[in-house]
Design brief:
This is Protein NKG7. The protein is mainly α. The protein contains 4 helices and 3 strands; from the N terminus they run αββααβα. A 3-stranded antiparallel sheet has the order 2-1-3. Helix 1 runs antiparallel to helix 2 and helix 1 runs antiparallel to helix 4.
Length: about 160
């Protein structure tokens, strides 16, 4: 297997895992007060009221990014088996879908960041982003790398022409 495709699989797999972990954990935002600490994520708990619009946007685009990333990695794995993939098109389609996953995740993270950043502050409560949030942002360059490396794998493959006949 060529190096670009292998590195694309590695970057895409790490991106997919980090998206899934970021979406499934509840440590996006932490508030530390004088007597207690609280953390929250993007998924409402039972009995909570309907989540804010920015939370729903983050959930929707985050899930879309995870699904696109999963499809991208599946196509890239299938492109390694010549009998299962369309000739030479697997890495190209995989790179397009990986770029779509990165764009979708960027929208989700930017909306969440902007809304949380602009919320009013209480003088006795210190609020900051936590590790799930940063893991979500880390996924964006990983998915972009997977898309770029997959595109490199597509461009470096031998071109069919009269020489191969």
């Amino acid at each position: 297997m060529e190096p670009c495709r292998s590195l694309a699989l590695l970057a895409g797999s790490l991106g997919l895992i980090s998206v899934i972990v970021a979406l499934s954990t509840n440590f996006w935002f932490v508030a530390v007060g004088p007597t207690s600490t609280s953390h929250s994520g993007i998924w409402p708990r039972k009995g909570d009221e309907l989540p804010a619009g920015y939370i729903q946007v983050t959930e929707t685009f985050g899930i879309l990014a995870a699904l696109c990333s999963l499809v991208s990695m599946g196509l890239l794995v299938l492109s390694c088996v010549p009998s299962l993939s369309a000739p030479g098109r697997g890495p190209l389609v995989s790179s397009i879908i990986a770029f779509a996953a990165a764009l979708s995740l960027t929208v989700a993270m930017a909306v969440y960041t902007n809304e949380r950043w602009n919320q009013p502050r209480h003088p006795q409560i210190q609020c900051f982003f936590s590790w799930s949030f940063y893991l979500g942002w880390l996924s964006v360059p990983l998915l972009l790398s997977a898309g770029g490396l997959s595109l490199g794998a597509h461009c470096s493959r031998p071109q069919s022409g009269y020489e191969t006949l």
